[in-house]
Amino acid sequence: MPKINLTCVPKLFLIGSLLFVIQCGNTDLQESRTLIREVQMKFAPDKRVSIFDIQADRESGTLILQGETNIPEVIPALAKKIEAAQLNARLDITILPVEELADSQYGIVNLSVTNLRAKPDRGSELVTQAIMGTPVRRYKSDDYWDLIQTPDGYLGWVDRGTVVWMDQGGFDTWRSAKRCIFTAPFGLVFSPNNGERQTISDLVVGSILETEGISGNNWIVRLPDGRQGMIPRDQAVDFTKWVQTQQAKPAMVITRAKTFLGFPYLWGGTSSKGFDCSGFTKTVYFMNGIVLPRDASQQVKTGQLVTREVNTNLMKPGDLVFFGRRATADRPEKATHVGIYLGDTEFIHSSGKVKINSFDSTRTNYNDYRYTHFLQARRVLTDTTIPQIRKMNWYQLDTEKRPS
């Protein structure tokens, strides 16, 4: 471990932030920036799922490495590299979440769909979505916005009013509560009053709600903010039983995928209100108990490679099929689109809308563009390393583990 000299630490010390001095040799600004990049490539190569904003600069002649990250291991790794390089530098790096959020860092999405944006601005790019009942973690705030992370690891800014925030105890209570999962494409939560039925929220497939059980033909449910209502009995199932019995099979994946035929394409969309290509595959597999990474370029790194050519003899129903830019001598392969292979040369994907195309040029639904831009097929249904909802601490309480 590097030698740490605390004599230069200010008396006003922010809890949650590490501030110390490493006394070594000569200072070199450019070398410190190289070391930062090395640490980033090891611990946080993908900014979509990791927070790593650390810069090197000089202040009054002192080399300072400052910023923030949500990966605690970054600090000792960076300190070790600085010592080995014999640099005289001060590290002032905050480990997120910030201390003021310690008692409210967990949350449950309270709208049928909430938008996650690249920046805390409604005009910023829609990077993904989270649906009602999705557990999230908050790292920092900016006015009316919160930077959150979803169970698939994706980061984004949400409007604060769309999530109900709670402390560790509240989150543990939610994870151990009796819940149901909504299985219809769309639906409504109605007021339980005996008079005229009043809508209190809409729902999309995959929404998770606390429940008091079934009364007559309805589930009695409670939204994250405490509002009570009811949904038709045939539109939801017990969450715990659903989680425990989910065994993703090709036929089940295909059946679920086809229920979304004709649904519109939406950039950044991951709900039945609108899907982008990877949002579609992610939702289909989620409803079969599997949590895929968010983007096509991430999903292509999961599962086992089946083929890099269009070979329908090797592909099996349920395989993910990827399209995009082939590798060249100057550029690596880049997956920009994904679908699900159905068998008999056909695949289903979201492009304009959810539709079925074929790799067979004699078929009326043949898609030459996808055929010529095919990259590979990957098998995920047999890959036990891909997170399964029934094993994720995000959704069920395990006091020995915490979401991170």
- Helix residue percentage: 10-25%
**Whole-number mean pLDDT:** 91
How do the strands line up in the largest sheet? 21-26-22-23-24-25
* Molecular shape: globular
What structural category characterises the helix and strand content?
Answer: alpha+beta
How many separate domains make up the residues?
4
The radius of gyration over CA amounts to 24 Å
CATH domain class of the largest domain = Alpha Beta
Q: Flag low-confidence runs.
A: 1-17, 19-26
The second-level CATH architecture of the largest domain is: Alpha-Beta Complex
Oligomer: single chain
* N- and C-termini, Cα separation: 24 Å
Q: If you consult CATH, what is the topology of the largest domain? A: endopeptidase fold (from Nostoc punctiforme)
Q: Would you identify the CATH H-level superfamily of the largest domain?
A: endopeptidase domain like (from Nostoc punctiforme)
What's the number of extended β-strand segments?
Answer: 26
Biggest β-sheet: count, sense, barrel?
Answer: 6 strands, antiparallel
